[in-house]
Amino acid sequence: MGEKQIEKAINNAVFSTEMEGYIIDDAAKELCRKLLKKEITMEEYISFVKSSDGIDV
């Protein structure tokens, strides 16, 4: 996935999510970028998201 495609995908997801009343911060966007660029694994992404939300599984 190219840089432009990644940004478009993130912007579309943010727009859709914010239409539902949620707020997406820059840290969440950066995690998505890293995942889409394959700099982190899905497991790492989920771990980061859970820890940032205070979810302890």
Q: Nutshell version of this structure?
A:
The chain has 57 residues and is mostly helical. It has one domain (3-52).
Question: What does the model show?
Answer:
- The protein has one domain (3-52).
- The longest helix is centred in the first third of the chain and has 17 residues, at 3-19.
- 68% of the residues lie in helices and 0% in strands.
- The protein contains three helices and no strands.
- It has helices at residues 3-19, 26-36, 42-52.
- α1 (3-19) crosses α2 (26-36) and α2 (26-36) runs antiparallel to α3 (42-52).
- It is an all-alpha fold and 57 residues long.
The helix/strand order is: HHH
End-to-end CA span: 31 Å
Structural class: mainly alpha
Which radius of gyration do the C-alpha atoms yield?
Answer: 12 Å
Sheet having the most strands: none
Q: Mean pLDDT, as a whole number? A: 90
Low-confidence stretches: none
Chart the SSEs and their pairings.
Blueprint: H1 3-19, H2 26-36, H3 42-52
Features:
single chain, 57 residues, mainly alpha, 3 helices
